[in-house]
Amino acid sequence: MKLLIAMFALLAIGAAGQETAQPNISTFSAPVMGKTVKGAPYSADEITESLQVLADGTRISHQSKATVYRDSQGRVRRESPDKIVIFDPVIGYSYTLDPKTMTVERLLMGTLVMNRQRRVFVFRNGATPSPEAIAMAKAELDSNVAELKANFDQLGEALAKLAKRNNPLTESLGQRSIEGLTADGTRATETIETGAVGNDRPIQVVYETWISPDLQTVVLTKHTDPRTGEETFRLANVRRGEPSPELFIVPADYKEK
Fold first, then answer.
1. The pLDDT of residue 156
2. Over 80: is that where the pLDDT of 50 sits?
3. Higher-confidence residue: 23 or 193?
4. I need a labelling partner for 18 at 20 to 30 A (CA). Which of 36, 65, 162, 204 fits?
5. Is residue 91 very low, low, confident or very high in pLDDT (cuts 50, 70, 90)?
6. What sign results for the dihedral spanned by CA atoms 154, 160, 164, 169?
7. Is residue 10 pLDDT above 80, yes or no?
8. Domains identified in the chain, total number
9. Which CATH number does the domain housing residue 24 bear?
């Protein structure tokens, strides 16, 4: 699972310890977490590799590694050399730690809904927003229902046309053992027809994905594109069992931004 960074304009409703009739609007970068998975704890290394071979035989390769921990409550900690991110769906916050500056940024986790001004309403799990904030959010969302539906309909039509044009082929790869885990594999092959990007012959782009039903997470992906080379994401050194609870707590000596 890759860490994504998204830019949001936050309309915070029912912030911790506060209730206000006029929500505060600010801009920030927020780490994004996938679905919460409970009852399947593990620890592992996430390794991302890329390889590109040039026409003269020159090989260009890159590798990055992060360590991930997930406990039985669905909390996740991901460590890279310059950053630590903790997702805690139990209390509804994510934390981004900077080991160099010993600082931490705390952000709300919740249900996100974007309106036409590209502002995002964040409803924190368990929070009690003020009546004014609820009325404001409801009026704004109600006014956008028709527009949102029209946008989704247009998006669905565009995706259908794209799928038909590229004629993607999806096939099951069955099961195999990866890092001691049973994984289900699928392969999707996208064909870029002759002339679509100035190519004089068809180009095949292949996506291969292996998912562990036990951990409910991706254990291996391969993306092969003749134009860019091969990209691989994999889990290594998978350890089943409960990680230390201390991994999901911000150290007391970190200062909050």
1. 72
2. yes
3. 193
4. 36
5. confident
6. positive
7. no
8. 1
9. 2.50.20.10
